[in-house]
Amino acid sequence: MRFKNYTLPVAFLFLLSCGGKKEQKVVIEPINVKVITMNYSGDAEQQISYSATVKESKEISLTFQVSGNITAVNVDKGQWVKKGQLLATLDGTTFTEQYNTELARQKLAQDNYNRINEVYKKGSIAEIKLVEAKSNLDQTTSTARAAYQNIVHTKLYAPADGYIGEKTAEAGDLASPGTSVFKLVKIEQVDIIVPVPELEINNLQKGQPAIIRIAALGNRNFEGKVDEIAVIAEDASHNYNVKVKVNNRDRQLKPGMIANVYFPAKGKSKGADSTTLSIPLSALQVNEQNQNFIYTVDKSSSTSVRRLVDCGPILNDRVMITHGLSSGDQVIIAGYQKITSGTPVKIIQ
């Protein structure tokens, strides 16, 4: 039996099948990245921020000037009070009795002086007697006035508008002079206390503007100015407290609230009046030539671009960029570990 040779047709068909395949294009999946957009409009996210605490601008300790049992306390902690409002009262029975006694002595001294004065006018008594009577009248008058002031001091009034920030006594307690009964806080203007590290304190100056963001108020922004910069550091932290004054006419800012404070700085890259841009320190990288660089997004091609930058001071977890970035640039702050220049990227929230 003879076998037919099928080698050539099979090889020919194999070549045809290989030659008929279309060339497959490799598709590179874009890398997911997060970005921040540079903005010279004063966006607080691109300025240096510090954690801070809201504090009342003025605290007044309210005390009775005389001792006695408290008979009434008319306000509660946190209550808004007006100037002249009655806050608390002491039992004034003893002081009233003392005043009545001194008033009777004053009346007696007045009658005695009037009688001696009439006799003196007739020349029937020595002048020294008149002087003694006048001195006694003056003394009893002063004593009566002092006794009356004790009665006045049994009532404690608000010296100004404000909130009762603290209440340390109740009806039935014994009050004594100098012992605080209430603390009245004024918050029409508040202080923002900002602890600033020693390496950064010289970057701030009195009168410098600040933006205060309060998370408890829905990230509402307030404007303020640096009012005071401490010259002595706190012992434990070595931070210097900076006081920022903020108007608070609607009294939304409450003492104890946590704030983020941003100090805009002047930059070089966009002129003297532009706010220097800043980025998270983690997004800054260094190449083999010890040059600082970051990655930005090319909007037209959706690819990454390596860009050299010049850096300014590092404050907290952000670094100031003095050259190499412009307003509108999108800086990659997450996902940059997986990319090089020209890598397709996809921006995610």
Summarize the structure.
This protein is α+β, with helices and mostly antiparallel strands and 349 residues long. Among the domains are: 32-46 and 268-347, Beta Barrel (conserved putative lor/sdh protein from methanococcus maripaludis s2 fold); 50-58 and 188-263, Beta Barrel (Elongation Factor Tu (Ef-tu), domain 3), CATH 2.40.30; 92-153, Orthogonal Bundle (Helix Hairpins).
Descriptive overview:
- Among the domains are: 95 residues, conserved putative lor/sdh protein from methanococcus maripaludis s2 fold (Beta Barrel), CATH 2.40.420.20; 85 residues, Beta Barrel (Elongation Factor Tu (Ef-tu), domain 3); 62 residues, Helix Hairpins.
- Helix content is 19%, strand content 39%.
- It is built from three helices and 21 strands.
- Strands 2-9-12-11-10-13 form a six-stranded antiparallel beta barrel. Strands 6-5-3-8 form a four-stranded antiparallel beta sheet, with no helix packed on it.
- A hairpin with a 2-residue loop joins strand 18 and strand 19.
- The protein is rod-shaped, with a radius of gyration of 40 Å.
Defining key terms:
Helix Hairpins; six-stranded antiparallel beta barrel; Elongation Factor Tu (Ef-tu), domain 3; four-stranded antiparallel β-sheet; alpha+beta; conserved putative lor/sdh protein from methanococcus maripaludis s2 fold; 349 residues; disordered N terminus; rod-shaped
